[in-house]
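Supplementary Text 2. Reproducibility record for the structural model of the 277-residue chain.

All settings were left at their defaults, and a single model was retained for analysis rather than an ensemble. We include the record here because the model underlies the residue-level annotations in Supplementary Table 4.
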Amino acid sequence: MKIKKEVDSGIYQRGYYVKAFDGKVEKYLESLRAGETGNRFDEVFRRAGLKEGERVLDVGCGRGELIYFSILRGASRAVGVDYSKDALAIAEKAIGLLPPETRKRALLLCSNVSNLGLDEQFDCCFLTDIVEHLTDEQLSGLFLELKKRLSDKGRLIIHTAPNVNWIRFEYPIKRFLTIPSTVIKRLRGKKPYKAPEGAGFFRKVLNFLDMYYARDYYSYSLDMHINEQSPASLKRHLRCAGFDYKLWCEDGSSNIISIICKRFWGPDIWAVARKKN
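Retained model, structure tokens:
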């Protein structure tokens, strides 16, 4: 079995973090000033149940949204860790928007998950969209380290996507059922098609029928997503690390297939984990 290599930090460049904001850091900062957490982060905080005075850790903090909003929600301490210097440069600007009297409660660290270098405890730890970027070895080590860093009331809030079961099963099924309409749209020019470079005949056919999930640098890139999870694989990691957990899948689509299958094939996997009593 081929051992997966760690993802080099250099792959996470400035454009990766601000693409959703037309590539402009200032537009991202404007969204923070407007209090726009977004649906996913709203869900993160809802699941976290963050209370005033609690201590927060965000591993893979990226642009720094969770640190910024945790402080505004009353966290007494919020530490963000990332190994991308481009991400931390943006996160520093985000922290700079906080009121001066609360800004000192936030801390950003440039560190690899294999060596967090922390010696304090936290009540809430966010692992949002980082699990799929780590090797099994990194993930196992991280869970064991976080178990030491959680207070008695501490919890991990985990979000990872896509669920490999969604990629392997639900997406192809949904696309298969829409083949007739896809072909008609292609032939009428309403759904443009460009054959992928270097692809064989079979791959080109799958792409034409929308049966093959298209990835790029900004969408589930396999250069970054080296370890996408299924509910079963994430459960194994949490069990091995000695956590109690609740784990479930979500699917925002109203498609009948999505509604039927979201419990185990939903693209978003969520978990809330705590140390065993």
